[in-house]
Write a structure and sequence with these properties.
The chain is mainly alpha-helical and 122 residues long. The protein contains six helices and no strands. α1 crosses α5 and α1 crosses α6. The chain is globular.
């Protein structure tokens, strides 16, 4: 929901910011950028509750994110998400941005579950 609201309220700013994703390299870069984009989305949504909730995860978000982004698969998924979200922002299509975010969240959950399964099998 916060992605939809942010694109509706600040699409040009988000599109510019998301352009930075093209230069991301390793897990730490992705972790930092992922925090920054979600923080920006919550702030630009206009609903401070989203930012308060997200900030509650600040202490361990990047640590977990570095683990998540350790695989090329996760980095590729997010690279595609950032590019597609930028396209939605450039088109000022808040509905597409929300649908994309929901789809990528579901895909990320599958990615985490598959990784957990592989780790258990080791």
């Amino acid at each position: 929901a916060y992605t939809r609201a942010a694109v509706a309220r600040a699409a040009p700013e988000l599109a510019v910011f998301l352009g930075e994703a093209e230069s991301l390299a390793g897990p730490a870069d992705f972790a930092r950028f992922d925090w920054r984009i979600h923080h920006l989305l919550t702030v630009r949504s206009g609903n401070p509750i989203y930012t308060l909730i997200l900030n509650g995860f600040r202490g361990f978000y990047e640590d977990i994110a570095r683990h998540y982004f350790a695989t090329a698969e996760a980095r590729q998924l997010s690279r595609r998400f950032y590019a597609d979200l930028r396209a939605a922002a450039l088109a000022a299509d808040a509905g597409a941005a929300e649908a994309l975010s929901r789809a990528v969240m579901a895909e990320s959950i599958v990615t985490w579950a598959e990784r957990a399964q592989r780790d258990e099998e080791k």
